[in-house]
Amino acid sequence: LKVDEEYNRPQFHLTPEKGWMNDPNGLWYDRKDKIWHAYYQHLPNQTTHGPVINWGHSTSKDLMKWDVHDDALFPDNKTGHGIFSGAVVIDRNNTSGFFNDSLDPEHRIVALYTLNTPTSETQELAYSLDGGYSFIKYDKNPVIDVDTPQQRDPKVLWHEETQKWVMLVAKTQEYKVEFWSSSNLKEWELISNFTGGVLGFQYECPGLFKLPIENAKEDGPDSKWVLILAINPGSPIGGSFNQYFIGDFDGKTFTPDDHATRIQDFGKDYYAFQAFDNTEPEDGAIGIAWASNWQYANLVPTKKWRHSQSLARKHTLRYVDVNPETNQLALVQTPVFETKETKADPSLKSWDVINEYDLEDTVLTSETLVGSDFNSERNSSGVLDFNLTFTVAPNATYGLNFGINIDSQIVEGTKETIQVVFDAQQTTWFIDRTTQHNFQRKIPYFQERLSLYHQFASSDAEKGNTYHVYGIVDRNILELYFNNGEITSTNTFFFSQNKIPSSISIATDTDEEIFTLDSLVIRELGL
Ligand code: FRU
Questions:
Q1: What is the mean pLDDT of residues 251-262?
Q2: Fewest CB atoms within 10 Å of the CB: 8, 130, 463, 511?
C-alpha cells in the first residue's frame, strides 16, 4: 500500500490534481472528439476556498477516469476578482458571431459565468477557439449587470420551441431563480422568476432540463421539466443541499406541477449539481455535483487537494409508489458506468472489474457468512461496489436489522468499518460513517449517522417486501442508490491511519429467518 497523502484520493471521482475545488462548472459533451469536459471552481495554490478563483479543467472519455488540464479561465488581475460558477453552451449556429466557418460547429464553445468582485456580481461571457481548453473574454462584458453583489451562477440552455437561449441565474438573497432570454448570448432580457422550496440563507446554482418519463402513461406526458436549486446554508440536515421541482416550461415560465419541493440526494455531500450541455435529450440529463458540504468543506482531511465531484449520474423520471396510496413522479439517478460511446467503442472504457463475488437466494441469519475477501494476498484498489436485492418476510419484528459493512484493511491490528444498515421494522436505512479520524471526532457538523425512509420496490403477501440498493465506495466517498436510483445518499468519510476500503460483508445478529438475499454482487474495481 502506498501510504502517502494520496491514499484517500478517489479513483473514479473527479479530483483536482492539487488545491481547492468546489462547484462543477461549464459541463459539456464534445460530440466531435467524443470527450466530456468538466470545469470547476479551482484554486491551485491553496486548499481553502477564496474569492480569487479560476475555472479548473478536466476531461474524460468514459466519465470514470478524468485527465487534468491547465486551468481554462482566469480572472483579470484586479483586486478580489474571481470567476465564479457558470455554464458552457455549444453555439453551433454562431448566434453570438464569435466564430467563423473554419471552426467546427461542435467546437463553438461559449462560457457564461459570474464575475465576482468585492462589490458586485455580474454575468460575463467568454468563448473558446480551441475546443474548450482556453477562453477569450468578450470585450463588451458584462452581459448582465443589475447593480447587485448577489446575482450569480448562470446556467444556459437552448430552448428549441422558441428558438431562444434561456439563462437561469440566482438572485441569491431574494430567493429568486431569474429567467433571462437571448437570441445571441450577448443581449439578455429578464422574462420571469421562480421562488419555491426550502429557502435557507440563499439560493445558488439553479438548473433546468427536460427529462423523459421511463414509464409514461398512455394518456400522460412522456417528458417533464425539472428545475434544480441549491441552497446554502439551511439544509434540513445541515449546511448545503440540493432540491428539485417537477413541472413544465414554455420557454418563459417554469410552472411546477405541485407545491412540493423534493430532495435531490439525502446525504450530506451533494451540492451545486450541474447537468452536461449537449447530451442527447432522450438519454436524460447527465450531471455531477460537488461531493462536499459548506459546513465543513474547508476542514476535511485531505492534504494536497480538497474535494471530489460525485460520479456522473444519468437522470430520468419515473412514476414511483412513494407510499401505499400515492404513485407520483420522482427523479431517478443512476451512475453512468457505460456511456453510449463506450458501449459502441469499448476501447474508450478505462476501468475493469478486478474481482467479483456473487450470491443468490440466501437466508441471512447470525450464522450466515456473506462477503468478499478479495485482498488477503495483496492490497485493495480501495474501490468496491455492491448490488443487493433482498426480501423481508412479512413477520419482521422490532429491532431486526442487518448491516452492509464496508471494512478498511487492517492497520496495526485494527480496522475501521462504515455501515449501511437496514431496519426491518421501520423500513428505514441508516448510514453510519463513524471513523476514528481526528477530523471526524472533532467537527460536530460532520454528522456521522444519517437515516432515510425507503418504500419497498415490490411487495408479495407471502414472500414479503423486496428492496434494492446499489452502493459504490471509492476511497473516501460512498454513493448509495436505493430502488434503482429513486433515492440517493452521498457521503464522504475519512478513515484514520491512511486506511482505505478493502472488503464488504453483510451480517445480522438475528436468528429469525427474516431476511433473504435474493441476489448480491460485490465487485472490486480498478482503473
Ligand atoms: C456555490 C457557490 C456559488 C459560487 C461559487 C463560488 O457553492 O457559492 O454560488 O458561484 O460557489 O466559488
A1: 98
A2: 511
